[in-house]
Design a protein that fits this description.
alpha+beta; 7-stranded antiparallel beta sheet; 5-stranded antiparallel beta sheet
Amino acid sequence: MNSIKFIPILIVVISTTLLISIAIWTSFISSVVEETNENSADESVVYNLNIIQNATTSVKGEGIQLTTTSHDLFHENSEGFAVYRLPAIVYHQQTFLVFCEGRKGTADSSISQIVMKRGHLNGTKISWDQTLTVVAKINGTRLANPVPFVDKDTNTIFVAYNVLTAGITEPMFLAQDHYNQSILLIKSQDLGVTWSEPHNITDETLGRMHPVPIFYAPGPGHAIQMKSGRLVMQGNYYYREINSTHKTYKSNTTDHGVVFVSDNHGQNWRPGGFVPYAEDNKGHAIDTSESSVVELANNTLCINSRTLSKSQPRAQALSTDGGDSFGSPVLVKELTEPENIGDVASGCEGSTLGFTAPKNWTKYGQVKSSASDKEQPWVLFSNPADPFIRIFMSIRLSTDGCQTWSKPWTIWDLASGYSDLVQYDDANNKDYQGPRFGIVYENGYIDTVSTVSFMTFTLDDVRNGVKATKLRAELKQNQIVS
């Protein structure tokens, strides 16, 4: 009976805490929106640049210049869909192809189709399709997690995706004893103008995995082709632990990053390696969920994964045999990801992109210790870099094979979600000025999925953006910028 007396007090405490949290968040949104409301949608990603430049001039004596350009590709409640999720991008022969789930409702389990918009590079200008193209649909069904990749040897663009029963949620999938889904693959050899009939690769991938997966999710984001020609498609899968001492997720399952590989240009596929079970120094399981993969030097792959524990940053695992096996995951403290307080799972998807290190690497303040280091690709990483909620879409750089990462360059201060990175430099272009990059990402003022935007940038922008982000943090701390 005594405990009943405390229930009204507990309700008051919880309500007060909630109201204070809402007030703080509303104040934060209002302060940043004031800075953005005079900018056009296509320039929103660099809304605070003038403030940074003016502040830098007065405090440091020099301005910080960025060369980014941006364009909004998909908007919620438009072109027949309620929302667009899980953007993924590839580039080939002066053409960008951006894919999303076009959802009829806002829930993950909604009926959805795979949609695409193409961008066309002409010199340094990019023109985008005005309307979307539906590249895959099955009436009344959920098509999810588009994963595009390019086979440069055959000039073929592939897209893999999940086929799921609409209305079935993640907990319902994980309660099953066996996967109930299909993995389909379509391809185009004319830069996305036309697409093949889907090829079902479920039996040769999920059907050959032991233990049997309970559920599998491709990607999200782009997959890769290795220098050897091998195609590597990343994802994650759950399986049920039986008679095990492992700490488990929902329905007694554990989650593992995994790759599927093809050594004959996508004709046949097989399971590659998966990230094994591991625990952190606090005894918590490291569940490696949604994953991105990048090729490093010497046939090495790095798989970078979202984790499901609120106490953990992102995790990485290495394969030294081209993806046939992976070592234990290691938590990367620099790669902060959101706790997603109140959501089903912690963390958020992130993207990695490997590229050849520039010849003038000393310009970027990097120290190379040996000749072999010069062969190590550099890697970009993007995600919402806040430890609590999905805000601060940011880009980081690693110059040592994903061992260490730069401070973040925050490209969007407000709500943000999934993203994907792409390189589109063309050394044969007479106007070639070095590698250029693009990022496609979910964003909004309050809702993380209001818009899917695309932004171009260079390595100089990353370097200067990191400086600008650090400066802005210092100015806010000193109350120079409200």
